[in-house]
Amino acid sequence: VGVMQGAFDFYRDLPGRPKHPERMFFALFPDGETAILAERCGQLFRSQHSLPGQPLLTERLHISLQMVGDYKRLRGKFLFAARQAAQAIVMRPFEVTLSGISTFDETRPDWHPLVLLAEGHALRDLQRRLGVAMNGIGLHSADDFTPHMTLSYGPNTIRPREIEPIRFVVREFCLVHNERWLGRLGTYHLLERWPLMASANFTG
Asked: What secondary structure letter does DSSP report for 50?
């Protein structure tokens, strides 16, 4: 049995234009070298285990933090609220470790995400802080959080297993707009970045 994705089921879209095609979420993106290492890890694993799958483009690899919402039309008030929540976050850069590989269970048999599992107390703290800030201004946050980086989608499921750790430093987080009807995974637009400050008073 794979890991349940739950509240972070970002990509389970039916064919055609969804009812709420405008999606906005917070995420962090690895540096280019880390993204290439993660992509190669996924390629090697699929090859070694004969797993079919639709890989994500290297530049789209990310760790999801909080879902802001799905909308029929993305309005300025939602974007303003998301920015207000992000501006409340004060943290210093921190390290994340990608230490395992697994799949998440889905209702569609051909659409199981193959993911790298991420570890880090500060990563969970960033997700929690964003959630608190979102709730404080009327947005809904996700309490359930399995830190991960999605590599591809396919029909197979696997049990979690360890990989050679991939480590990288997080120096910013981002707000992303996904136009979900443009291709199966939609089209990403990076709306804004917020740097993590080395001088922040954070001890996590």
From this structure: T
